[in-house]
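chain below, 439 aa
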Amino acid sequence: MSEQPQQIELPPIKFFADGSDDDTKKANLDAVLPSPGFPDTALLIADSLSKRADLIVLDYSAQVVNVRLQIDGLWHELPQKDRTSGDYMLASMKKLANLNYMERRNRQEGEFAAEFLNKKTTFDIVSQGVTTGERVVIHVNRKKPSTETLSDLGMRQKMIDQLKVHLGKPKGLILVSTLPGDGLTTFYRGVLNGFDRFMRDYYSIEEVSRVEEEVVNINPVTFDESNGQTAQSVVPDLLLREPDVLVFPDIPSGAMLDYYCDIALNDEKLVLTRIPAKSSVEAILRVMALKPTVSKFAEALQCVTYQRTIRKVCDACRQPFVPPPQLLQQLGLPPGRVQTLYNHTQPPPPEMSVDEKGNPVEVFVCPKCSGVGFRERTGIFELLNVTDAFRKAMLQSSDLQVLHNLAVSEGHLTLREEGVVHVAKGTTTVQELQRVLQK
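prediction:
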């Protein structure tokens, strides 16, 4: 008597199909539920939700499908799928999104929704044929913790208070920076929300095709590059309104930075702009590499505020350990100051997930982080206060180490020092801090 195929226990997930009307939505869902691709679809979507993934990427080649989840900014590889199973799964997701599941070359975009653990989430799916087969990117529109304020982002209140002194100044230039792809827009919005936007007039000068998400009480003013306009085309009329603060999301050139500095120095306005970099000092050097008039830049610059994101260790499954004296010394922590540090829980390797006969054994998976070991992110920050001595050094040197050493000698706290505070508090791990600092 032949063995019956093993039944896969599916997670308690409910799907909502898209379509032009209710009948089409129902027909799409009815077609997917009994399909051979539905079990893999249900398992993948439930896994992405339980692990709080922001992106799902499927890369199709001739034989296999590579599956990745982006969780808290890092990519996690899932087991490969054979091409047949992957095709059935993708057909199910395309049908849920009211797309043509037979189309494998041209770009398609759609959406569907799923309810899992009493939470309903929408998914945006984009498929595109590539030379190796097909690439599918699925955006998971899950509800995330608030990132509106500097406190939400993890900045210490003492640093917030120091930054707000600069944000309250009547004139000067403030530079905002992060690593490329590490939340520059989010941090930038957090800084904007740090302004007292009810007591002064704020305007953001933006190119019409790159308008930023609105921040309350910061008025957007647009210009059109396709018509030959620049920020300089709209600022003169704007200055007649006597604004207090002007915000420029980009620094397109050194000449434009000179213009920002002229507004700060001659028109006596507070100007805020941003640039990607690896540290607050490097942000200054990246601006200087655009070849502005360095003397203007040095005179106008008041501070640089900088952020890097770091994962928070899961507090439900983190593993405590007593740090050896050598580690405390490396971290710059006095002996006896910190009694316990933490490592994240890691799943055992496959060879340890079986008994002596080679049969799979049940492995504990933390219900809070779903075995990832980390849950959500916070920020580590620098606030570089530009002193007269630092301005003088900017005119004399463009060496990163020289300027860094001067800043530290004046009391500047580095990313590493700020990160060690998180390690000491048990917010993150030594390994995670090392990973972040190596970027």
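Residues 1-5 have pLDDT under 50 and may be disordered. The CA atoms of residues 239 and 267 lie 8 Å apart.
thats it, cya
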